[in-house]
């Protein structure tokens, strides 16, 4: 806690940083040095939301489709292509699966 002269209450450094982080949320030119010191990087946070990779069990759970149906749709080009993570491992971008599901929902609702 930091005592402030002329004030009756004390202010913690954490509250100061929290206030600065909230004020800096809309800034796009916040220097990386300061942003990283505050644990805040709007560019990294927005990019990470789109780069979550799901493996087959999660895709099966999310879509409600079986493994064979996913691969059949994939072979016909009707399902998002997976990303090769290693020689024997693939995964799907969660944003691609969400977009595919949104398109299926819109198609069913006539939109």
List keywords for this structure.
alpha+beta; 2 domains; 3-stranded antiparallel sheet; two-stranded antiparallel ribbon; 6 helices; 14% strand
> Helix and strand string, N-terminal first?
EEHHHEHHEEH
Judged by helices, strands and strand pairing, the structural class is alpha+beta
Backbone CA Rg = 23 Å
Low-confidence stretches: none
Total domain count: 2
Q: In which range does the helix fraction lie? A: 40-55%
Order of strands across the main sheet: 3-5-4
User: How many helices?
Assistant: 6
Mean pLDDT level = 77
Terminal CA distance reads 56 Å
Largest sheet: 3 strands, antiparallel
Number of strands: 5
Q: Beta fraction of the residues?
A: 5-15%
Overall shape? flat
What does this structure look like?
With 111 residues, the protein is of the alpha+beta class. The protein has helices spanning 13-23, 32-37, 42-48, 56-63, 67-75, 94-108, and strands spanning 2-3, 10-11, 53-54, 83-86, 89-93. The strands form two sheets. It has a three-stranded antiparallel beta sheet. A two-stranded antiparallel sheet has the order 1-2. The radius of gyration is 23 Å and the shape is flat. It starts with a strand and ends with a helix. 4% of the residues are buried.
In short:
The chain is built from six helices and five strands. With 111 residues, the chain is α+β, with helices and mostly antiparallel strands. The radius of gyration is 23 Å and the shape is flat.
């Amino acid at each position: 806690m930091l005592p402030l002269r002329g004030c009756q209450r004390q202010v913690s450094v954490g509250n100061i940083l929290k206030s600065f982080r909230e004020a800096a949320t809309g800034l796009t030119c916040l220097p990386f040095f300061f942003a990283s010191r505050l644990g805040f990087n709007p560019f990294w946070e927005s990019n990470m939301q789109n780069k979550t990779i799901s493996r087959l069990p999660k895709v099966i759970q999310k879509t409600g489709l079986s493994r064979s149906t996913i691969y059949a749709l994939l072979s016909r080009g009707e399902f998002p292509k997976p990303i090769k993570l290693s020689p024997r491992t693939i995964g799907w971008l969660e944003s691609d699966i969400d977009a595919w599901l949104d398109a299926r929902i819109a198609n069913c609702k006539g939109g």
